[in-house]
Amino acid sequence: MRPGLIGTVFALYLTAGFGALPADAADDASAFDMLGLRLGMTADEARAALKTIDPKIRIDESKRQLIYTDGVEAHRTEPFLYSITGSGDIADEAGNTRRWVHSLRIFFSPPPDGGRVTAVTRVQTGLPNAPSGAQYRDALIQKYGEPSHSQLGVHRWDFPHGKTQCLLQPSSFGQAGSTETVGASMMRGLFVFKGQTMTDRLQTQKVKDLSQCSSFLEYKIGNDKTAVQRVSAHLVDVVGLARSEIASNEWVAGLAADARKAREGKVKGPAL
């Protein structure tokens, strides 16, 4: 069997090369990683981490632009890095590929202060020599410690210690992680809206300020007693996502105001 991104025992992707977290790891947000990928990394650091996982990993990058208007015409910002996807597969004894597939998608904060990892998602299907759900859970606990929440094969770690999970349904928000984590508005997941206008009030009643909210790591592995057939996971910087979204919206609003002012400065008065 040819080694590749998933052609090793599953424990490698939890502990080997990265080590188990210390007992006080929940006090340090940087201690939580997904295969060496950490929140706050730059794009170059994320690419290097992917190559560490597998030198032959396929890397694809996605860029986006933000749209604003001067009141008449639409304008676009310069393209910026939205996400990096690393994926790989392995051939079986017969040479058939894509029997087992592993994909990692890394999301980055948008401009004006963009370029930092705000979320990482992981999907793994058809694990070779698949462990049971209980074995996979035990390996997760060995690396990350006891989860903050565990139910029906879903295990979540909120961090850093002393912060509060402010998303009313973090698993539901994380569901978007398998496709478009950043595409789901973190602001709408956290704040009370009146129509299209965001208020400064959080949906949760537990805290009053965004800075008191935790990030989280969540793994969905299924039943303890059956072999794991699919793993989905997401590592999410809740506060970082919200703040970058707010900053980006304000930046685009400023661009729109400047564009409108520039257009109106060229307008000639009507002939009366």
Descriptive overview:
The protein has helices at residues 43-53, 133-144, 170-175, 186-190, 238-265; strands at 33-34, 37-38, 58-64, 67-69, 74-76, 80-90, 100-108, 117-125, 149-151, 154-159, 191-194, 197-202, 215-220, 230-236. An eight-stranded antiparallel beta sheet has the order 3-6-7-8-14-13-10-9. A two-stranded antiparallel sheet has the order 1-2. The chain has 272 residues and is an alpha+beta fold. A hairpin with a 2-residue loop joins strand 11 and strand 12 (197-202). The termini are far apart. Helices cover 23% and strands 29% of the residues. It is built from five helices and 14 strands. Mean pLDDT is 80; it is low at 1-13, 15-26 and 175-183.
Key features of this structure:
single chain, 272 residues, alpha+beta, 5 helices, globular, disordered N terminus
Question: Can you summarize this structure?
Answer:
This protein is of the alpha+beta class and 272 residues long. The protein has helices at 43-53, 133-144, 170-175, 186-190, 238-265; strands spanning 33-34, 37-38, 58-64, 67-69, 74-76, 80-90, 100-108, 117-125, 149-151, 154-159, 191-194, 197-202, 215-220, 230-236.
Work out the number of β strands: 14
Mean pLDDT: 80
How is the largest sheet built, in terms of strand order? 3-6-7-8-14-13-10-9
DSSP helical segment count:
5
List the helices and strands and how they pair.
Blueprint: E1 33-34, E2 37-38, H1 43-53, E3 58-64, E4 67-69, E5 74-76, E6 80-90, E7 100-108, E8 117-125, H2 133-144, E9 149-151, E10 154-159, H3 170-175, H4 186-190, E11 191-194, E12 197-202, E13 215-220, E14 230-236, H5 238-265
Antiparallel strand pairs: 1-2, 3-6, 4-5, 6-7, 7-8, 8-14, 9-10, 10-13, 11-12, 13-14
